[in-house]
């Protein structure tokens, strides 16, 4: 990647998100889930794995175990059997069992709605917690994944040397009316348009606003 772009100004960012909002008013995450608990499990399983791969594994798992109680009844070997196509599956299965036990013991089987409580669960880091807060509680939490980190620096929408700095740049610079959906607009833009190796600039709705050195001119 080329050198990080400078932070874009307010008016350019406002225009970028106005266009994202017009083209996709209700952007959705791509991890399948049926309730807050299965969302936590799906996001925890998705670390260093693709959403498509996680969805394939959880399709059957969540039919059998969509609550922490049912997951505990399935047991570690049962969880492993379902998720063994996912990277780091043994460790992830252990964490799913441990976090399910904590939810039952300490939270009455209900997923807590604060970042501090979420990150106290095994296998749940700040990024996972922020995805859950954003997707389930519609809280404007920003989970910076590889796509957001890349395009934040490439475009100047939210540049930063670290994941935390990019998270702060989003919170500080994206107008509040776009904060809730910013997470998904940026991820989807990075996943399907502003791709890592070869951005599809010809199909980019913010092309005229983009000053990135990676922009492909044709
Ligand atoms: S013009 Fe190209 S580099 Fe710029 S945001 Fe769009 S896809 Fe990314």
Automatic annotation (TrEMBL):
The entry marks the following residues as binding [4Fe-4S] cluster, namely 194, 201, 204, 210
Keyword vocabulary terms for this entry: 4Fe-4S, DNA damage, DNA repair, DNA-binding, Endonuclease, Glycosidase, Hydrolase, Iron, Iron-sulfur, Lyase, Metal-binding, Nuclease
Quote the EC number: 4.2.99.18
The chain positions of domain HhH-GPD read 45-192
Q: Gene encoding it?
A: nth
Q: Which GO terms label this protein's molecular function in UniProt?
A: 4 iron, 4 sulfur cluster binding; class I DNA-(apurinic or apyrimidinic site) endonuclease activity; DNA binding; DNA N-glycosylase activity; metal ion binding
Q: Which residues form a coiled coil?
A: none
Q: What is this protein called?
A: Endonuclease III
Could you tell me the Gene Ontology terms of the biological process aspect for this record? base-excision repair, AP site formation
Say which species the protein is native to.
Litoreibacter albidus
Q: Which family does it belong to?
A: Belongs to the Nth/MutY family.
- PANTHER family from the xrefs? A/G-SPECIFIC ADENINE GLYCOSYLASE/ENDONUCLEASE III (PTHR10359), ENDONUCLEASE III (PTHR10359:SF18)
The protein's required cofactor(s) are namely: [4Fe-4S] cluster
Q: Which reaction does it catalyse?
A: 2'-deoxyribonucleotide-(2'-deoxyribose 5'-phosphate)-2'-deoxyribonucleotide-DNA = a 3'-end 2'-deoxyribonucleotide-(2,3-dehydro-2,3-deoxyribose 5'-phosphate)-DNA + a 5'-end 5'-phospho-2'-deoxyribonucleoside-DNA + H(+)
């Amino acid at each position: 990647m080329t050198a990080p772009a400078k932070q874009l100004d307010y008016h350019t960012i406002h225009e970028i998100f106005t266009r994202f909002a017009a083209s996709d008013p209700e952007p959705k995450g791509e991890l399948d889930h049926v309730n807050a608990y299965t969302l936590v499990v799906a996001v925890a399983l998705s670390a260093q794995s693709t959403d498509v791969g996680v969805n394939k594994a959880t399709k059957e798992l969540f039919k059998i175990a969509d609550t922490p109680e049912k997951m505990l009844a399935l047991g570690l070997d049962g969880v492993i059997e379902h998720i063994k196509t996912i990277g780091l599956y043994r460790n992830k299965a252990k964490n799913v069992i441990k976090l399910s036990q904590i939810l039952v013991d300490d939270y009455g089987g209900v997923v807590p709605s604060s970042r501090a409580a979420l990150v106290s669960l095994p296998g749940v880091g700040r990024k996972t917690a922020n995805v859950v807060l954003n997707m389930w509680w519609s809280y404007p939490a920003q989970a910076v994944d590889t796509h957001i980190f890349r395009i934040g620096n490439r475009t100047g929408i939210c540049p930063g040397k670290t994941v935390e700095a990019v998270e702060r740049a989003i919170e500080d610079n994206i107008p509040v009316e776009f904060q809730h959906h910013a997470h998904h607009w940026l991820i989807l833009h990075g996943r399907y348009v502003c791709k890592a190796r070869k951005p599809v600039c010809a199909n980019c709705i913010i092309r005229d606003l983009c000053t990135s050195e990676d922009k492909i001119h044709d």
